[in-house]
UniProtKB/TrEMBL annotation:
This is Metallo-beta-lactamase domain-containing protein. It comes from Desulfomarina profundi.
Length: 106
């Protein structure tokens, strides 16, 4: 998905949200924070916050955030997990960070 602020994105994003509405699992790009994203528009990635909002709007049950910025450390990713993966903090969707080798049971 493209970020809301990108010109062509609004209609495309609505169509995508309709496509994954009610999904058991959505695996979504989350390369940047919203603050970082503002200087990276049109780079082809989205923010963590946008992915969470899209999943909640679409009634997705589980959201796996992946494609983390390669410059992030494991410590930073652990901090993101503490912030963004708290049950109920960002709506009904269960949020987790995808990790190499992770197995997800549906």
């Amino acid at each position: 998905m493209a970020q809301e602020g990108e010109e062509v994105a609004v209609e495309q994003n609505l169509a995508l949200e309709q496509f994954f509405a009610g999904a058991d699992l959505l695996i979504h790009d989350a390369q940047y924070t919203q603050e970082e994203y503002s200087s990276r528009i049109n780079w082809g990635h989205t923010s963590i916050e946008y992915a969470i909002g899209a999943a909640n709007r679409a009634g997705v049950k589980q959201l796996a955030l992946f494609h983390h910025d390669p410059d992030r450390t494991d410590v930073q990713l652990d901090e993101f997990a503490q912030e963004y993966c708290q049950s109920g903090k960002y709506g009904e969707t269960e949020i987790f960070l995808a990790r190499e080798g992770m197995i997800i049971d549906l």
